[in-house]
Write a structure and sequence with these properties.
Length: about 140
């Protein structure tokens, strides 16, 4: 009996590899290819189109900036791409940094509120626990 033969991939493994290949092919062509595939899938079979739309949103392919390297050049298709106007690009970068700082400060504020609420609830619990219980009739 020969034990050197590799096991044959299952049907699910082959389907997963095929879907990964399709995903990679669409990623190489950008967001437009994903949108075209979604529209064609909606035309052919609406649940498939809905599944592709869900995958695009879940994997952040719908809204994110995908950085790709093509022939040694860096491409960014989306919101953070340079416009060519250095004054606007500097303004946008400064505004985004300010918003990120405000977001971080807000998250810190929410954390302090949660901690204060937890402490108040714990103090109330300890106060109620230390009070003698009322005599039962």
């Amino acid at each position: 009996m020969n034990t050197d033969i590799a096991p044959r991939p299952s049907v699910l493994d082959r389907i997963g590899a095929t879907l990964a290949g399709i995903r990679d092919w669409l990623d190489e062509r950008g967001k437009g290819a994903w949108i075209a595939a979604m529209i064609l899938a909606f035309i052919a079979c609406w649940p498939l189109g809905l599944a592709i739309l869900g995958y695009m949103i879940w994997s952040k392919r719908m809204f994110s900036c995908r950085h790709r390297h093509h022939h040694g050049r860096h491409h960014c298709h989306g919101f953070n791409a340079p416009t060519g106007n250095t004054a606007f690009d500097a303004y946008r970068e400064e505004t985004l940094k300010r918003l990120e700082d405000e977001h971080r400060e807000f998250l810190d504020f929410l954390q302090k509120l949660r901690e204060a609420k937890d402490k108040a609830e714990f103090d109330q619990f300890m106060q109620n626990r230390n009070e003698p219980s009322a005599p039962q009739a």
